[in-house]
Amino acid sequence: MTVELSTKYACFIPLCPLVASCSTGSLLFLFPKTTRSLRRPCAAFNISLLAAAMFVSFSLFWQQAATPSIQQYLWIRIPKSDFCLNIGFAIDPLTLAMSILVTTVGFLVMVYSDSYMCHDQGYARFYAYLNLFIASMLGLVLSPNLIQIYIFWELVGMCSYLLIGFWFTRSSAANASQKAFVTNRIGDFGLLLGVSGVYWITGSFEIFELCDRFFELSSSNAINPIFANTVALLLFIGPVAKSAQFPLHVWLPDAMEGPTPISALIHAATMVAAGIFLIARIFNFISLLPLTMSAISWVGGITTLLGATLALAQKDLKRGLAYSTMSQLGYMVLALGIGASQSALFHLITHAYSKALSFLGSGSVIHAMEKVVGYSPTRSQNMFLMGGLRKRMPYTGITFLLGTLSLSGIPPFSCFWSKDQIIAESWLRSPYLGLLTSITAGLTAFYTFRIYLLTFEGNFRANQKNHKGCVLEPENRVIQSLFEKGKSQNEKTIQSYPDRNQLYPQESNFCMLLPMIILAIPTIFVGLKGVNSIMNLGSLDLLFDWLNSLPSISRDTKYIENLIDILKSSAPSFSLSLVGVLISIKAFNQTKEFTDTKSFEELKSINKNFSKNFVVFFRNWSTNRGYIDYYYDIYFKQGVLSLSSLVSYFDQWIIDGFTNGTGASSFFAGESLRREKNGRISHHLLGLLIGIGLLVSLFLFQLLISQSRPCRKLLLSFHEAPIRVHFSRLFFIFPISIYLLFAFFIPQRQRKISLRSTRR
């Protein structure tokens, strides 16, 4: 099978999950009860079709490796005068690498979801949404032009709305989905304006063509730089919202209201990765605009530090991982802004596997905690109610620790190599950005190990009656109400267990553990390719080179030398990460003391070691989300509501008032005239004659004033008038005569006839 023939099979990559989604949705709509009862066949059908798409992605990748090229397979051409839109798929190293990433993570998430969502009534609906989500992302990755990218971009946003609000009967989930949808509409509107501006400049929507045209136009100074930067920044607004960059990041933590498998897919390989992919796809366009590149780098830098500080004191397990994703996405955007696109894409793939592993591990913990503390997210996701789970859930604890080590930047795990490249590039471009990324590396190691230690180390805290508080959490009213007051619904669930040992979470089943074990493999080994000497760091095809050269690592004689050199150069950033890990262990690896009956004063004495005011400030900053949501509520939300009220008042009393006033005045005028009229034609004729008489009198009066001899003048004008004037006067008098006839004689005749009939 030739490479030219192989491009035709690219359509099956998004088509397979799309067929699975449409089929499941149709069956669920036509035969709801039957489809819900066939849970296993539904899951097998959806998973098998996604596995087929994954197989096609790998096959095309290895065929592309034999003869590297950039090819397009176009289905439809829409020509109109000088405009031509090609609809099809583009096959190049970036699209194939992203397709492998999306299909592999999506496949493992689907296998995981079979057990995680098995007791949910919307099981089939979940799989339909999930496959549509993956199909939309794959269509976006394979799109050859900005129009197709925008269409699939909107489909990704729609699917995220459906999945975040999957449990829409819960008000928090419904509000979170609406928040994500509205926030992304802001970015999508900016993206739409940017796409229109790109066509205005280059006259094309084709990505490769518009990049070449823009390069030619900028080389000849035929473009207004202000307009070009404005268009590029409008394009960037789309990834700012989709990839949760400051200031449009507020939807990401609330998106945790959806099922945990969806959180893993959104944060690893689909929605947030779409923004990074778009910037990388049009990188040749924006790289020619230094102002735009500087803005992108600083937005990414601010997001990196902001996400890390917001994750420092989160007590919700998934919310802490969400802010971690926000910070790591900031690393990628910063790398793209400073021109290190290959490092950004490298970090995209290493972070995807590590974060997918962390989220699936958190889902395993939450799934086990729900059987102990109930199904409320405020309890099952609260890290202060966990602790000691490594003993009860060893496989989950080990795999989660591997993901934590990778995200913390500890060698030789995958995220260390990609993050270290970004930090090194940042120091070369700007010392301020380098300092920012280095500080964030230490904070990342601190809060990721904090999440692990509070969840898996120490003693289990949820079933202790005398537990008064835990690390940085003085009050625990949930536990008191659960075990002392006895008014909670979950108390019945806990008392239903005959053995007290079953009050502890239990390890998840094999269906949930297998995807985590598989994800642990790339989490450990995927980043080692970053030290391979044959990798072309100057190319945007880094992911392709990285995947293609994996088998040659053992045959590379300079591999160990490069490994040692990179470890030496990364010593500063690694030292900061190690310091963050040690501080976290010192602060949060003392949970045994907090689970005893000691008072909260011991907690205060420990906090003094870390400068109490500093800790309290960051705790308030983190728990209040940096006060950004409050700022939006006060200024933007209330401002929009006030403006809407003003516009509504103006519309109601000015615009509608004028229209309604005109109608009301006409109505009252008509009513007043109706009451004075009795419908007799003679009365109407009398009014007409009076009006004619007034007009004639006015005309004669004007003649008497303007002429000295009005009578002679009037007769003379009558004789000298042309024939048409006489005819016009005749036609004016004739209707009046007919009107007089009908007004006086016919009514009098009818009246006489009626009188005769009454006399008879």
From TrEMBL:
Keywords: Chloroplast, Membrane, NAD, NADP, Plastid, Plastoquinone, Quinone, Thylakoid, Translocase, Transmembrane, Transmembrane helix, Transport. Coiled coil: none annotated. InterPro entries: NADH_UbQ_OxRdtase_chlpt_su5_C (IPR002128), NADHpl_OxRdtase_5_subgr (IPR018393), ND/Mrp_TM (IPR001750), NU5C-like (IPR003945), Proton_antipo_N (IPR001516). The chain crosses the membrane at residues 12-31, 43-65, 85-112, 124-143, 149-169, 181-202, 262-283, 295-313, 329-350, 395-413, 433-453, 510-528, 571-588, 685-705, 725-746. One of its GO terms (molecular function) is NADH dehydrogenase (ubiquinone) activity. Its EC number is 7.1.1.-. NDH shuttles electrons from NAD(P)H:plastoquinone, via FMN and iron-sulfur (Fe-S) centers, to quinones in the photosynthetic chain and possibly in a chloroplast respiratory chain. The immediate electron acceptor for the enzyme in this species is believed to be plastoquinone. Couples the redox reaction to proton translocation, and thus conserves the redox energy in a proton gradient. This is NAD(P)H-quinone oxidoreductase subunit 5, chloroplastic. It comes from Asplenium komarovii.
